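User: Teach me something about this protein's shape.
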Amino acid sequence: MTSVHEEISAHSQKQHAHIQSFLALEQKREQAIESAVKKCEHNEPFSTDEINAITSKMNELARGGIVPLRKHVTIEMVEEYTQRKQK
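Assistant: First, the predicted structure itself:
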């Protein structure tokens, strides 16, 4: 039989791993957004597919209740952000 301390420790480690996975995905998502914004700034074609694939993985983790949901990104959102950034 495991002790309460071991159970709490295992639970904490699982939550920590969950958060670390989320943070790694958050960083990848930010990089993908920045890449799309740069392409948009240079009037190059871009897609939000990579951003939203990462977002979907993040939202799967969020269903566990520890980390927040993230919105999927549209091409229009990137274009609007780029326009605001250039002003």
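Now, about its shape. Residues 4-41 form the longest helix (38 residues). The chain has three helices and no strands. If you'd like, I can walk through any region in more detail.
User: That's plenty for now, thanks!
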